[in-house]
């Protein structure tokens, strides 16, 4: 084992997690170093550290228990040896990967760098980790032998009846102590004015909330295969609200808040509470390739599909009780409020 830190299953854009041998392998599009490595975060940090002559980089930077030293010049010097550490953790080391494991998972293309970097006895075990995407507990060890209903390693702290960190803190604006147990607090602005006092429900009958996607996140929009499955984020509303607004599944609507308006497709969904409209997070980009940019004489790629959908932040609220133009923020976390925004909706 080596004196090094953590490990992940991919580096420099090389996919390694259970990749079918039938899938095409796309080399990183990044510029390569003179040694042929794709320029990325790790290659930059290593090159910078060596240029600054920092300890722990370059030749003889990593040592094993026998006192032998090894270089840290490339990302694989770090990640593959970290993988060897993980392979030997626990009660016993992982099994060796078979040739079939290596070929079917796509790790075959990494075999040369595995042999170049690792000790002979480590190659098949690190390949085992790469072929499975990590190290996992044996199924026979996961549950209690006497009572198989109980897991040996259950998730702890499932519910916090009392959060000392919150209960010991104070609201930075009012100076009042925060409540450390689960409580209902009426949504209010910075000076304590209830939101509904300024934006009453008779004028703003809907409340907008955000939720995280099962398929997308703020930066995965560039994965065009995911876009093929889920190209936009229709806004979810309850059937009762759809009937009241005289709209149907797939209709284009205009959603307005005191902070602005946008147009979106709707999806009628019985799982949403009446009076609430839910907007999926991760869409509505204006960057990440969604619009054209030119750097020098080079035109950067543009894909209009990356701009699909809507972003709840575009119609967020400013706090009307503050003298400066500041967003309405959550008093505990300090994040912009994205749940419970007062809104209206009509057919576009």
Helices and strands in order, then pairings?
Elements lengths: L40 H11 L6 E6 L5 E4 L2 H13 L11 H7 L5 H7 L2 H13 L31 H4 L27 H4 L7 E6 L12 H6 L5 E3 L1 H7 L6 E6 L2 E9 L7 E5 L13 E2 L2 E2 L41 E7 L1
Parallel strand pairs: 3-7, 4-6
Antiparallel strand pairs: 1-2, 3-10, 4-7, 5-6, 5-10, 8-9
Helix pairs in contact: 2-5, 3-5
Describe this structure as you would to a colleague.
This protein has 2 domains: 1-143, no CATH class; 191-347, Barwin-like endoglucanases (Beta Barrel). It is built from 9 helices and 10 strands. It has helices at 41-51, 75-87, 99-105, 111-117, 120-132, 164-167, 195-198, 224-229, 239-245; strands at residues 58-63, 69-72, 206-211, 235-237, 252-257, 260-268, 276-280, 294-295, 298-299, 341-347. The strands form 3 sheets. The protein has a 6-stranded mixed barrel. A hairpin with a 2-residue loop joins strand 8 (294-295) and strand 9. The radius of gyration is 27 Å and the shape is extended. Residues 4-22 have low confidence and may be disordered.
């Amino acid at each position: 084992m080596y004196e090094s830190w953590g490990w992940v299953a991919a580096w420099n854009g090389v996919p390694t997690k259970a990749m079918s041998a039938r899938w095409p392998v796309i080399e990183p599009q990044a510029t390569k170093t003179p040694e042929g490595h794709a320029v990325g975060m790790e290659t930059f940090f290593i090159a910078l550290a060596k240029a600054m002559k920092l300890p722990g980089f370059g030749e003889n930077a990593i040592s094993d228990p026998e006192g032998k030293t090894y270089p840290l010049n490339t990302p694989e010097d770090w990640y593959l040896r970290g993988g060897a550490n993980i392979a030997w953790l626990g009660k016993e080391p992982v099994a060796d990967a078979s040739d079939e494991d290596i070929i079917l998972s796509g790790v075959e293309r990494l075999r040369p760098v595995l042999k170049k970097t690792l000790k002979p006895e480590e190659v098949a075990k690190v390949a085992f980790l790469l072929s499975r995407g990590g190290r996992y507990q044996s199924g026979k060890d996961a549950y209690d032998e006497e009572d198989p209903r109980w897991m040996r390693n259950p998730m702890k702290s499932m519910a916090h009846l009392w959060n000392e960190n919150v209960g010991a803190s104070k609201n930075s604006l009012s100076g009042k102590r925060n409540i450390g147990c689960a409580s209902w607090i009426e949504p209010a602005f910075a000076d304590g004015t209830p939101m509904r006092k300024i934006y009453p429900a008779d004028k703003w009958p809907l409340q907008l909330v955000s939720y995280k996607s099962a398929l997308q996140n703020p930066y995965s929009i560039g994965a065009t295969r995911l876009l093929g499955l889920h190209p936009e984020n229709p806004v979810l509303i309850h059937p009762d609200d759809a009937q009241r607004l005289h709209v149907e599944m797939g209709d284009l609507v205009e959603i307005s808040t005191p902070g602005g308006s946008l147009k979106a497709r709707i999806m009628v969904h019985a799982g949403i509470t009446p009076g609430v409209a839910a907007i999926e997070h991760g869409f509505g980009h204006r960057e990440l390739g969604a619009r054209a940019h030119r750097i020098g004489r080079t035109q950067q790629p543009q894909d209009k599909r990356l701009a699909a959908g809507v972003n709840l932040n575009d119609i967020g609220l400013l706090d009307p009780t503050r003298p400066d133009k500041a967003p309405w923020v959550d008093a505990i976390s300090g994040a912009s409020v994205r749940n419970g925004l007062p809104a209206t909706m009509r057919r576009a």
